[in-house]
Amino acid sequence: MLLFIANTAVATLSPPSARAQAQATATIRIERPAIANSAEWDRAPRASRKEVIRRDERGRPVLLRLIEHQ
């Protein structure tokens, strides 16, 4: 009887382990080609420009300039 009570107490104190799972879907459609140069970057609206620094395989920083078209 005491063993049954101990098992019940342990089972109620430790929550069951939950496995998190997520799924995402993305669709990219290229409607028209774009020219990538500094003049096009300057002409793009500020709201659609974004600069991101990432590191390459050797750990060196690389500046990425992204223009988002909607």
Protein described:
The protein has 70 residues and is of the alpha+beta class. The chain has a domain at 32-70. It is 26% helix and 20% strand. It contains two helices and two strands; from the N terminus they run H-H-E-E. It has helices at residues 2-13, 38-43; strands spanning 49-55, 61-67. It has a two-stranded antiparallel ribbon with strand order 1-2.
Short description:
It is built from 2 helices and 2 strands, in the order ααββ.
Give the strand order of the largest sheet, numbering strands 1, 2, ... along the chain. Answer: 1-2
Strand content: 15-25%
Overall mean confidence score, pLDDT? 80
How many strand elements?
Answer: 2
Which consecutive residue ranges, at least 5 long each, have pLDDT under 50? none
User: Into which percent range does the helicity of residues fall?
Assistant: 25-40%
Principal-axis shape equals elongated
Largest sheet: 2 strands, antiparallel
**N-C termini distance:** 68 Å
Integer-rounded radius of gyration? 26 Å
Classification by helices and strands: alpha+beta
Return the string of H and E elements: HHEE
How many helix segments?
2
Notable traits:
70 residues; 2 helices; alpha+beta; single chain
Write the layout of secondary structure elements.
Layout: H1 2-13, H2 38-43, E1 49-55, E2 61-67
Antiparallel strand pairs: 1-2
